[in-house]
Amino acid sequence: xxxxxxxxxxxxxxxxxxxxxxxxxxxxxxxxxxxxxxxxxxxxxxxxxxxxxxxxxxxxxxxxxxxxxxxxxxxxxxxxxxxxxxxxxxxxxxxxxxxxxxxxxxxxxxxxxxxxxxxxxxxxxxxxxxxxxxxxxxxxxxxxxxxxxxxxxxxxxxxxxxxxxxxxxxxxxxxxxxxxxxxxxxxxxxxxxxxxxxxxxxxxxxxxxxxxxxxxxxxxxxxxxxxxxxxxxxxxxxxxxxxxxxxxxxxxxxxxxxxxxxxxxxxxxxxxxxxxxxxxxxxxx
Length: 285
Known about the structure:
- With 285 residues, this protein is an alpha/beta fold.
- It has one domain (3-283): Nucleoside phosphorylase domain (Rossmann fold), CATH 3.40.50.1580.
- The chain has helices at residues 25-39, 57-61, 108-111, 114-126, 179-188, 208-216, 227-235, 260-283; strands at 46-49, 63-69, 87-92, 98-102, 131-140, 149-158, 193-199, 221-223, 239-249.
- It contains eight helices and nine strands.
- Mean pLDDT is 90; it is low at 1-6 and 8-16.
- It has a five-stranded mixed β-barrel with strand order 5-8-7-6-9, surrounded by five helices.
């Protein structure tokens, strides 16, 4: 069997990441080489992708040693979404190793290109990361979970109709969102609950009927990111940990119109708590 037809399982997270020549891997290696030169670090052990509302976490994860503008790294561009940061930070963790902290991600709705979405996590793998932390701001489907609440991602539904994988690339997603790291998170904050994240393609917010559908399918959270990133991360050999910040209730659950400003404001209000929890989890990895 060639590389593209080899099944990828959870155990592959312990082997060398980014094996083979899947589309997008070469560009990710080029990006990693630029980051290594710009940051002075040959390897970054962990990668963190900060979604809406999670920006404050960058200051708590570790000591910043270097930063690179996204637009200066092959395959990336400055974010178009308010509330996202246009830099990649190289951060020294408490154990002396480095983490890559991405202040933004590429969203599927920007170009309908799943390969562009996957570039962030593939670059992380090429830079030596073995674990990726994916965060986002999302809509909540449970009226009892108030805006400003962090939720662990236990699983996802990919309703984009797309995938970052090409050809006969069979990837096992049974335990995609690391049970090990979720256990660590609950040890740090026993109040954390978990749920199923549903990715829609966006950029429009979900309709009340789509929210009801997502809930009927088993979803707890709705948003426009993360599932495609997570698929690509598992394929690249990374252990995946995901956390959502509920920034609003889904359409039809809350009566007021949805807006991106609401998402940004909820993230700012919850910032100190969620940033501390995330930093404490990363310190245990």
